[in-house]
């Protein structure tokens, strides 16, 4: 079992639009076969599939995977329990943290665009 504070030790999500399954695996400290399994179990997790069925995850997918990981590995939920929790995630306490990270990411994207325009 992982330490409760392990999610805080995960690397920061780079400012990219798409991530490969290998990159997401490293960013979330989850093996690729686990990510493929979670795609079957959690309907919210739908990476873009392109050439040869290659998966490309977006930033919100990475945030969602980190949330699933926390529920399963740190809070001790079963797959079914985590699925129920994710289905009702609008009222869960993890949502504000996810929203804050998305806002920070959007701000950095806008700042980067402004630099390019200057």
Helix content percent band: 55-70%
CATH 2nd-level architecture: Orthogonal Bundle
H/E element string? Answer: EHHEEHHH
* Major β-sheet profile: 3 strands, antiparallel
Cα-atom radius of gyration: 15 Å
Low-confidence residue ranges = 1-5
Number of strand elements: 3
User: Order of strands across the biggest sheet?
Assistant: 1-3-2
What proportion strand? 5-15%
Examine the coordinates and then state which fold CATH places here, giving the name of the CATH topology.
Multidrug-efflux Transporter Regulator, Chain: A, Domain 2
Number of individual domains: 1
How does the overall form come out from the CA principal axes?
A: globular
CATH class: Mainly Alpha
**SS field, number of helical segments:** 5
For the residues shown, what is the average pLDDT?
83
Euclidean distance between termini CA atoms? 49 Å
Structural class based on helices, strands and sheet pairing: mainly alpha
What does this structure look like?
With 118 residues, the protein is mainly α. It has one domain (6-117): Multidrug-efflux Transporter Regulator, Chain: A, Domain 2 (Orthogonal Bundle). It is built from five helices and three strands. It has helices spanning 21-28, 32-41, 59-74, 79-87, 95-117, and strands spanning 19-20, 48-50, 54-57. A three-stranded antiparallel sheet has the order 1-3-2. Strand 2 (48-50) and strand 3 (54-57) form a beta hairpin. The N and C termini lie far apart (49 Å).
């Amino acid at each position: 079992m992982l330490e409760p504070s392990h999610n805080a030790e995960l690397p920061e999500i780079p400012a990219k639009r798409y991530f490969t399954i290998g990159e997401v695996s490293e960013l979330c400290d989850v093996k690729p076969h686990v990510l493929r399994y979670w795609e079957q179990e959690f309907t919210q997790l739908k990476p873009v599939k392109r050439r040869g069925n290659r998966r490309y995850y977006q930033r919100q997918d990475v945030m969602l995977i980190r949330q699933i990981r926390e529920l399963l590995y740190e809070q001790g939920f079963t797959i079914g329990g985590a699925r129920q929790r994710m289905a009702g995630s609008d009222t869960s306490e993890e949502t504000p943290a996810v929203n804050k990270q998305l806002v920070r990411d959007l701000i950095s994207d806008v700042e980067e665009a402004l630099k390019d325009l200057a």
